[in-house]
Write a structure and sequence with these properties.
The complex is a heterotrimer. By secondary structure, chain A is an all-alpha fold. Chain A contains eight helices and no strands. The radius of gyration of chain A is 20 Å and the shape is elongated. Chain C is built from 14 helices and ten strands. Chain C is globular. Classes of the chains: A mainly alpha, B mainly alpha, C alpha/beta. Chains in contact: A-B, A-C, B-C.
C-alpha cells in the first residue's frame, strides 16, 4: 500500500479523530497566542517607558525561548499536571519574546515630537497610548505577532507529549512507527496552518501600514 | 542543582559541543542567508515564495526532519548542522531582506548621483548600512539555533540536549535542570556577545 | 566600510570552517575494525547497548558508542546506512514497525523466525534473544486496583468507563494497542475509558504519580512496577505480542568478527524479566545510578567480562 492509499484509508475511518486533533491544535495555538498578546503587549508598552528595566526583562523572557519545550513541560508537570494547562503555559511563554520585543521597539521608535504634541493637546496618558501611539506602533507589533504565530503553530506539535493533544499526535506516531503517511497527515496541516497565519498577519500588517 | 556542580566537567564537555555546533551552523547559515536575503529584497516578486518556503521548512518539526535525513546523511554533526542551517534561514533571510529594504532610498539616489556603479552601491552603501539590523537578526537566530540544537542529541551529535533527554528518559530531574541552566547560560552569553558587536559596529548616527 | 564588512564575513567564514573542522565525530569512514554500537534512548535499551559495548571491548575490539539515540527511527536507519554496526532491538518491534506486519506474534520462537527471515533483505542478523519480554501491560496504584477489584485485563475492560488512562505514542493507533484491545473486549466493557490521553513515553509513570491517571501503559521490564509498588495487571487473554531483545547486527560485521556471536549470546539467558526490572530501577529509581556503572557491575558479577 503506498503512502497516498494509507492516508486515504486513515481518513476513511478516522476523520472525526483528525478533526478533533485539528480543533485542539487550533484552539491551543489561538488561546496561547491571545494569552501572550494580553500579557506581553501591555508589558512591552510598560517597559518601553522604563528603559532601565527593559533590558533585564527582555533577557529574562528570551531565556524561556531557548529552553527546549519538552524540558519546560517535564519540569512543569508536578505543578500543572498534564493536558491543556501545561501545554498552553509553555506555548504562551514561547510566544512572548517576539511580541514583547516588537511591542517594546515599536513604542520606543515613536517620534517623541508626536507624543509631545499629543500631550500638548491635553490627552491623558491612556488616551495618548490608545489613540496616537498604538496605531503608529501597530505594523511593527504585528510583525512580532506574525513571527510568534508561526512559532506557536509549529511548537504546538509538542503538546501531545504531555497530554495536550493536537496534530503533533500524528508526527510523533509517524516518527515512532516510521510511517510516512502519519507524518504527512500531521505535517501538512501544520504547514498549511502556518502559511494561513502568515498570510493573515502580513495582510493585517500591510493594512495597518497604509492607514498610517 | 547539585548534579550540575558535581559533574561540571561533564556538563562543560556538552556545553562546548553545543557551542561548536551553534557557531558552525551560524556561519554556514549566514553564507546562504545573506545572498538569499539580498535577492529577496531586490526582486519583490520572489520575496513571497522565498519566505513562504522557508516558513514551511520552519514548521517541520525538527525530529521529523532529522528522521528523514538520516538515510541520506547518517548520524552525527553533519546531519545536525543541515537541520540547524535550514531552520535558521527563515529568520535570517527575512531579516536581511528587511534590513536592505529599510535603507533610505535617498542614500542610494545620492550614491547614484555620485556616479557609483551598481556593485559599488551594494558593497559600499547597502551592505554596510544593513549590518546593524542584520546583527540584531543574527542575535535572534543564534538563540533559536541554540534551542533547536538540543535535538542534535537525538541523532548522536552531542550537545546539551543529551543531558536533557537523559534526564527525561531516566527520570533524573538533576540532569534536566543542569541541561536547562546550561542552555540558558549559553543563550545569555551569545545574546550579550552580539549586543556588544551591535554596539561596536553601529554607524555613529544619533 | 566595505573593508570592514568583508573582513567580518571573512572572520565568520573562517570561524565556521575551523569549528566545523574540529567539531565532533563525522559519521563516515571510520577504521573498519572499529565497531559502532548504538542504542535507543530509553533506559533499558541504553543499558543493553552499553553491555554490548563493554563485552566487545572485553574481547579486545575497538568500540565506538552512539548510545541513546532518539527512538527506533534514527537508530534503525543509521544501522541500515552503516553508521551503526549493531544495537539491541526487540523482535516485536522488528515485526510491526520495520516489517509492517499487522498480525502480532505471541510465540517467541515464531517471532524470531519471522524477523530473521524478514531482515535478510537488509543484510541484518538477529542473534539469540533474551527471555525478557518488554511487552506492553497496564499498571495501576495498588489501592486503586483494590478499590475497583481489578487484577486482569478483563477486569480493566469492565471498569474502563470509570477510569482515566495515560498511554505513550503509538498505543492508540497500533493493532496491538488500544484499537486491538477495543475489538477483543468489545462486548466486555470495550476498553473505552472515561478519559484518555497520550503522553511521551519517557513520562509515562508521572500521571500515576500525580494521580492524573488511574491506569498507565507499562512495559513488562519497567523498574517502576516493583520500585513504586504498583500492580501490574494480568494479561488473561494473552493479547500483547512478544518483545524479546536481541542484538541486531550487520551481516558483514558478524562475518568479519564471528567471535561476537558467542560472547553476545552468553548475555541473553541472563536478561530475564526480573533481572531487567532490577537493572532498570537502579537507573530510574531513587539511586539514580549511571548507566555505565550499572551495566559494568552486572557483567562483572556474572563473569561476562573481566573486572
Amino acid at each position: 500500500m503506498n503512502v497516498l492509499d494509507q492516508i486515504r484509508d486513515y481518513f476513511a475511518g478516522n476523520s472525526h479523530v483528525f478533526m478533533a486533533n485539528l480543533k485542539t491544535h487550533i484552539w491551543l495555538s489561538s488561546f496561547s497566542m491571545l494569552a501572550a498578546i494580553l500579557i506581553c503587549v501591555p508589558l512591552g508598552i510598560w517597559i518601553s517607558r522604563q528603559l532601565k528595566v527593559a533590558n533585564y526583562i527582555i533577557n529574562a523572557i528570551n531565556i524561556f525561548r531557548v529552553i527546549p519545550s519538552l524540558a519546560i513541560l517535564a519540569l512543569a508537570m508536578p505543578l500543572l499536571g498534564v493536558g491543556f494547562a501545561p501545554a498552553a503555559v509553555a506555548l504562551t511563554i514561547l510566544a512572548c519574546p517576539p511580541i514583547l520585543i516588537n511591542t517594546y521597539v515599536a513604542f520606543r521608535e515613536i517620534d517623541p515630537a508626536i507624543k509631545e504634541a499629543a500631550k500638548g493637546m491635553g490627552m491623558s496618558s491612556l488616551q495618548r497610548i490608545m489613540k496616537v501611539e498604538f496605531p503608529l506602533a501597530l505594523p511593527v507589533m504585528l510583525a512580532g505577532i506574525r513571527t510568534a504565530s508561526v512559532e506557536i503553530i509549529a511548537s504546538a506539535t509538542l503538546a501531545v507529549l504531555i497530554g495536550g493533544g493536537g496534530l503533533g499526535n500524528y508526527i510523533i506516531n509517524g516518527i515512532s512507527m516510521m510511517s510516512k503517511s502519519y507524518l504527512l497527515i500531521g505535517a501538512i496541516p501544520v504547514a498549511l496552518l502556518a502559511i494561513l497565519s502568515e498570510l493573515i498577519f502580513s495582510f493585517l500588517q500591510r493594512k495597518s501600514n497604509y492607514s498610517n | 542543582m547539585k548534579y550540575l556542580f558535581d559533574n561540571l566537567d561533564l556538563v562543560m564537555q556538552h556545553f562546548w559541543e553545543h557551542l561548536q555546533l551553534t557557531f558552525s551552523a551560524l556561519g554556514i547559515a549566514l553564507c546562504i542567508a545573506i545572498p538569499l536575503g539580498f535577492i529577496a529584497a531586490k526582486y519583490r516578486k520572489l520575496q513571497m515564495p522565498i519566505t513562504g518556503v522557508l516558513g514551511v521548512i520552519y514548521t517541520i518539526p525538527s525530529m521529523a526532519l532529522y528522521a528523514a535525513l538520516i538515510p541520506y546523511t547518517g548520524l552525527g554533526v553533519t546531519t545536525a548542522m543541515i537541520g540547524l542551517v535550514a531552520y535558521a534561514q527563515m529568520i535570517l533571510v527575512r531579516n536581511v531582506a528587511a534590513a536592505i529594504n529599510g535603507i533610505d532610498p535617498m542614500m542610494i539616489e545620492a550614491a547614484k548621483g555620485m556616479g557609483m556603479s551598481k556593485w559599488q552601491i551594494i558593497f559600499k552603501i547597502e551592505l554596510p548600512l544593513a549590518i546593524p539590523v542584520v546583527i540584531a537578526g543574527i542575535r535572534i537566530a543564534t538563540v533559536s539555533i541554540i534551542s533547536i540544537g538540543t535535538i542534535a542529541a537525538w541523532i548522536g551529535a552531542g550537545g546539551l540536549g543529551r543531558l536533557i533527554y537523559q534526564g527525561l528518559n531516566h527520570d533524573h530531574t538533576g540532569k534536566i535542570i543542569a541541561g536547562t541552566v546550561s542552555i540558558a547560560v549559553l543563550a545569555i552569553g551569545a545574546d550579550l556577545l552580539f549586543r556588544l558587536i551591535e554596539r561596536i559596529i553601529s554607524p555613529k548616527t544619533t | 566600510m566595505k573593508k570592514r564588512f568583508l573582513s567580518m564575513v571573512a572572520v565568520m567564514l573562517a570561524l565556521a570552517l575551523v569549528l566545523a573542522g574540529c567539531g565532533g565525530g563525522k559519521s563516515d569512514g571510520s577504521a573498519s575494525d572499529t565497531i559502532t554500537v548504538g542504542s535507543k534512548d530509553n533506559t533499558e535499551n541504553h543499558l543493553i547497548g552499553e553491555m554490548y559495548a563493554l563485552i566487545l571491548e572485553d574481547m579486545g575490539l575497538k568500540v565506538k558508542r552512539q548510545l541513546s539515540l532518539g527512538g527506533t527511527a534514527p537508530t534503525f536507519e543509521a544501522l541500515k546506512k552503516g553508521d551503526l554496526d549493531l544495537y539491541p532491538e526487540y523482535t516485536g518491534t522488528g515485526l510491526t514497525v520495520m516489517l509492517g506486519e499487522t498480525e502480532p506474534e505471541k510465540d517467541p520462537v515464531r517471532a524470531l523466525e519471522r524477523v530473521r527471515e524478514g531482515f535478510k533483505q537488509w543484510n541484518l542478523e538477529w542473534l539469540e534473544p533474551a527471555s525478557e519480554n518488554a511487552t506492553y501491560g497496564f499498571a495501576m496504584k495498588k489501592e486503586k486496583a483494590e478499590q475497583y477489584g481489578i487484577r486482569t485485563f478483563t477486569d480493566l475492560a469492565e471498569h474502563s468507563h470509570e477510569l482515566v488512562l495515560a498511554y505513550p505514542q503509538e498505543f492508540d493507533v497500533r493493532e496491538d494497542g488500544l484499537p486491538g484491545l477495543q475489538k477483543v473486549f468489545a462486548d466486555k466493557g470495550g476498553f473505552k475509558f472515561k478519559k484518555q490521553f497520550q503522553i511521551d513515553y519517557s513520562l509515562r509513570y508521572k500521571p500515576l504519580e500525580n494521580d492524573e491517571a488511574d491506569v498507565t501503559v507499562s512495559v513488562g521490564t519497567d523498574g517502576q512496577i516493583a520500585g513504586m509498588g504498583l500492580q501490574l495487571l494480568i494479561d488473561d487473554v494473552g493479547f500483547f505480542p512478544v518483545y524479546n531483545v536481541a542484538p541486531l547486527i550487520r551481516k558483514e560485521v558478524l562475518d568479519a568478527h564471528p567471535q561476537i556471536k558467542d560472547r553476545l549470546n552468553a548475555l541473553a539467558p541472563l536478561l530475564t524479566d526480573a533481572a531487567m526490572q532490577e537493572l532498570n530501577w537502579k537507573v530510574d529509581g531513587p539511586d539514580k545510578m549511571e548507566i555505565e556503572e550499572v551495566a559494568k557491575q552486572f557483567l562483572i558479577e556474572n563473569n561476562l567480562i573481566k573486572g
